[in-house]
């Protein structure tokens, strides 16, 4: 229904029915963000006052209740949902990854004892199989991101309208970011991953030199091992994958204004920031894990924005309030956000540009 040229929208929550008028300066946005991992549902209708992507004052309603895909979203949603379900198992496998450190140490100390060498090899091979699974999943995650970006940034409507009308896809986009940051946090704190893979590559190379038919017996041959090596050499491999994928999405879709993508990202960052910094809204979280979820999503979209926007996320013209976002991070317990701060310090593209203010650089300096 339209009233005075504006669209009338009815919002119902907990038995309360309210009608609002949408105009150019007031937007109601319902986004479902579900914590990846336990998939617990966080509730309460949260009103967040923040600037919208057109630099006008806007009202954002974030609903942490259940968002169901519309028929228009369903095909894309189902494709991405399969990947997100697999993401839970990936995180479980990574969290329980213990490595073959003792077997490798024994093999290095006893290079001429075949039994010790065989024991180390037998321990490492299945672990490298897990690392292969993680790497191949990153490729599927890249495909899912492309599909979501195509849906959420198409020219048929504005970025804000996309987020408003395609809430289930917006939720999945947030879940991908949450998974990505969580994966990288776990990877960075587990040196066994690099140690196991390095030992595997050295042993595989030695087998080739000695004409031992190793590659035919193992699922990770030398060519795949080279690609995996580039992936795991990065401090935040999943985030690097998404950053490259987002950049490629923009470059491949030259008919799509870059603002469609950057405005989507900056809106998500702004909404997460305001939710986190406002006690009234933050107190409504049903689960404290919602805080870490929102922090990861905020940092994830900042980094993607910094890669996609020509000037980056740290300039004065940026639509992301970087000082505010960094302050929100620093207001958390240090141990819970150090990985996220490091992601901003070491994986962004424009932080060290001359156009970045000294204040922002100082805020991100390691104490």
From TrEMBL:
The keyword ATP-binding does not apply. One of its GO terms (cellular component) is membrane. It is a lipid-anchor. Coiled coil: none annotated. It holds the Pfam family CYRIA-B_Rac1-bd. GO terms for biological process: regulation of actin filament polymerization. One of its GO terms (molecular function) is small GTPase binding. Residues 59-361 form the CYRIA/CYRIB Rac1 binding domain. Keywords: Lipoprotein, Membrane. It is found in: Membrane. Its main location: membrane. Belongs to the CYRI family. This is FAM49B.
């Amino acid at each position: 229904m339209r009233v005075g040229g504006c669209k009338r929208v009815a919002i119902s929550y907990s038995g309360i029915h309210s009608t609002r008028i949408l105009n150019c300066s007031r937007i109601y946005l319902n986004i479902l963000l579900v914590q990846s991992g336990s998939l617990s549902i966080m509730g309460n209708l949260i009103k967040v006052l923040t600037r919208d992507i057109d630099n006008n004052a806007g009202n954002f309603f974030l609903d942490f209740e259940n968002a169901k895909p519309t028929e228009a979203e369903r095909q894309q949603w189902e494709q991405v949902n399969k990947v997100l379900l697999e993401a839970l198992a990936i995180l479980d496998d990574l969290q329980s990854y213990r490595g073959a450190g003792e077997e490798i140490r024994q093999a290095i100390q006893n290079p001429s004892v075949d039994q010790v060498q065989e024991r180390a090899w037998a321990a490492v091979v299945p672990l490298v199989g897990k690392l292969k699974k993680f790497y191949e999943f990153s490729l599927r995650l890249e495909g899912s991101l492309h599909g979501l970006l195509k849906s959420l940034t198409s020219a048929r409507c504005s970025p804000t309208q996309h987020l408003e009308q395609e809430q289930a896809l917006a939720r999945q986009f947030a879940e991908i970011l949450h998974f990505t940051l969580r994966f990288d946090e776990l990877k960075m704190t587990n040196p066994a991953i690099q140690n196991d893979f390095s030992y595997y590559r050295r042993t595989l190379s030695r087998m080739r030199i000695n004409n031992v038919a190793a590659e035919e017996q193992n699922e990770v041959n030398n060519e795949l091992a080279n690609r995996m090596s580039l992936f795991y050499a990065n401090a935040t491999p999943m985030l690097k994958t998404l950053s490259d994928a987002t950049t490629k999405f923009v470059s491949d879709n030259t008919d799509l204004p870059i603002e469609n993508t950057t405005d989507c990202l900056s809106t998500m960052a702004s909404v997460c920031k305001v939710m986190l910094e406002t006690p009234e809204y933050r107190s409504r979280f049903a689960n404290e894990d919602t805080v870490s979820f929102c922090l990861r999503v905020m940092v994830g979209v900042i980094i993607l924005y910094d890669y996609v926007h020509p000037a980056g996320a740290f300039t004065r013209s940026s639509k992301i309030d970087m000082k505010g976002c960094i302050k929100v991070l620093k207001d958390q317990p240090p141990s819970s956000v150090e990985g996220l701060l490091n992601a901003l310090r070491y994986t962004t593209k424009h932080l060290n540009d001359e156009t970045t203010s000294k204040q922002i650089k100082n805020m991100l300096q390691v104490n």
